[in-house]
Amino acid sequence: MAYYVIAGKLTCLNTTHALHIAETLSLRLPNFHYRRILKSDYDWPIWLDQLNSTNNWHETCCPLAWKEVGQMGGKPHLIGNLGHFWEYCFDYYGIQSWLSKTDLEKIKADDALMHTSGNKTSSEPQKISVTDANTHPMLELVIYELQQLFSPSTLEIKLYDANIPDDEDTDVFMLETLESYQVSGKSSPQSIVLVSTLREALQNCDVLIVLGDYRRLHSAFRKNTTNHENLGKTLISSRLPDEAADDWLNRCRLNMIILADEINSSASRSLKVILNHPGPICFNASVLMEYCTQIRLSNIVAVTTDEGLSVISTIAHQVDRPVEHFWCPAVWGFSGIMSFVGVACTPLTQVVIQPYKRSLKTKESSKLPKGEIVVEIKFVENLLKTEELFYEELEHRKERELDILQRPPVLAKVRALASLLKLWFAEVVTDEIISLGVCSNGAFRFPPGVCFSQPVSLNEKRIWEPVASLPLTSLTQRKVADIVLQVEGHLKNFGIGDRLR
């Protein structure tokens, strides 16, 4: 799929005409998507010079059109100025357009009014709240990503942490918190506000990001200094569970019920809740779906793509391919309790030489091209020797990583959260497929009304829907059936899913 870009000056009638045609095509053709870049007369030459330097172009006209193939923001392919754009539209779509100068002036006035009212789309969030702000190691990274994705001048980030002592001087604590961000140089403290109650965090909030640590409690660690004595430090070799499974899930359930009650009483109906924490993330999202009655169930999601991102390097090592050639594998199941990463179905791109027929007959001294270089999409299943050995190595690597870090890894979670927000609030809805914990509608034989991680895509109403047409391997079907069978007991014990049954 190609995404078109029309760039020009606000005061240019040619830019107005090109945007009018692009808008008409986008309304009539299902696969025509475009975005506009409008600059003032002062900013246009500076911006155009930077664009030419980046792409090695030599364009001077206004407007300028190009297309990005595959995904928005991809490599630009130049179409040209207005005349080239007209020729392109006529060749591909058979469309011609004539507008009088008076009509163009009216359209330009409307465009200028829209531009002055704000460059960002109405879907872009204004206020984002983050819970457990003082306890989670990835908070600074999350704040940095938020301010990279959205306009810092209008974005307000509210931080809330229930673990702040009641006798703590809030003003002093806020000053220390903001000072730490300023020293780190990763964020703009002017847009960060510390709130003392969950109600304040939810009022006038567009997006709620739930962090925190909901892992199962453990007793004293069993220590092992083998092969590390010379380093002078002790690593954790294993953890001894100190909390029964039902007690653990009930503790998480009670926390989510408290959050759901506050959402019902203080939040707007359009609030989007994103869970991105270690622990039973799909279970917690399911509890929120059960008890949140004032917001849409489709607005409650659990970030699970990080499970797929964290295994890409292991896959690349196994099949001896560069990491950048891999797509993210699908994540299935009740993440945080029982999930499955479909490694075998992971796509990867591979550059191959496709020979011409004449390559069999031409002489070696011939200067004619004997083939062309093309990019093919293959699956890891054909390159893995045995999946069992891969999953064993993967589990060993996770344990070793946890022992070294002394905490769950956070980089994959931050990256997954940023990708989710970028897609959810993009100007144009794409057909990209990601793994996400959403309210099941019965697709892939998951019980309806419960949060399960599965491949989803964003529809025209910006609602995440399972890609039910996605073909499954026999192994994935067995794993999904096993997961459903294993978690049914937890669902019945805690009454999850009853709301939609």
Describe this structure in words.
This protein is of the alpha/beta class. The protein has three domains: 2-116, Glutaredoxin; 127-299, 3-Layer(aba) Sandwich (Rossmann fold); 306-346 and 380-500, Alpha-Beta Complex (L-2-Hydroxyisocaproate Dehydrogenase, Chain A, domain 2), CATH 3.90.110.10. It is built from 14 helices and 19 strands. It has helices at 13-28, 43-55, 82-93, 101-116, 139-149, 170-184, 198-202, 245-266, 281-291, 305-309, 312-319, 387-405, 411-424, 474-493, and strands spanning 2-9, 33-39, 64-69, 76-80, 127-131, 156-160, 192-194, 207-210, 222-224, 235-238, 272-275, 300-303, 330-334, 338-342, 347-355, 371-379, 434-439, 451-458, 464-466. The strands form five sheets. It has a nine-stranded mixed β-sheet. Helix 1 (13-28) packs across helix 4 (101-116), helix 5 runs parallel beside helix 13 (411-424) and helix 8 (245-266) packs across helix 9 (281-291). The model is unreliable at 115-122 and 220-240 (pLDDT under 50).
